[in-house]
Amino acid sequence: MKSLKDLPTLAESLGMPESQKLLQSFYLRCRMMNLTPTALQADADRLRYLLKYTHSRKLELDALTVRDLQNYLLSIIDVISPITVNGRITVYKTFFKYLYDEGLIPMNPASGLHKLREPIRLKDTVTPDEMVRVLTTCNRKTFFGSRDFCIILLTYDSMLRLSELLALKLSNIDLQGRLVKLYGKGRKERYAPFSGKTAKAIYTYLIKFRSKIEGDLLFPRLNGGQLKRLGGYHIIQKAGKRAGIKLYPHLLRHSGASQYIRQGGNIAILSRILGHSSLKTTQIYLHLSGEDLLNNFENLSPTSGMEF
Length: 308
Known about the structure:
Elements: H1 7-13, H2 17-32, H3 37-56, H4 66-76, H5 82-101, H6 128-135, H7 143-157, H8 162-166, E1 173-174, E2 179-183, E3 189-193, H9 196-208, H10 229-242, H11 249-262, H12 267-274, H13 279-285, H14 290-300
Antiparallel strand pairs: 1-2, 2-3
Helix pairs in contact: 1-2, 7-9, 7-11, 12-13
């Protein structure tokens, strides 16, 4: 998998010297912005597809026109999902706007691109009973079992992104105040709460197992090193498999958020917990079933306290 740093070299190998210069400049801009490794990799993946398409047309990136970009997007619309297409459009608009603003290209071919309408779908969730089944598969009498139990529980309870969880340090967790300090997308700092049950589980893990390992990571490997993204993914996936449930990190985050809303949680507060920059994002993210809405409304209806 090519990183953003590797793309200029890829352009050079394809005989695209102008594209090499543009990609090198954009890479340096992204490093100066201190973007997360996840964001850098997402940009790299999406630009790599465009670079290969440009090469197949015997063009350079600085020669692409509005029509060229439109033709490229038309060629992928029926192949990948609207969400994936929109992710590429976002990166291309950022990329070409930067080049144009810096005077590196004569025109911005992406300025007129518009995102596709994304279908609204009810997302799957894990029920509280299923969560209990998953958690009980972890052997809390061992380092790995206790660590994995806390990883799964905290991801669900505080609705964390996997990248946020794996980067947590001991100094980021406040067991008494029941808050975890996070650095989300764009390195934005925020705090997410967690329950007393989660605090108790983490305290037990810290005292029995974590205290014997060097380093400052909250959930390290046995040698103190940081878990890789794939390693964290597999921990959650394997726990789900043992419980007979298809499980992955984002499903834990979404399920926790959905359960928060089902129990009468405030959408504005949830937006802050999730680290969304817009309340609209949170409203799109959560789509409760008709039964959920009815049960929630029955408890919160303006007429619930009236007798007539």
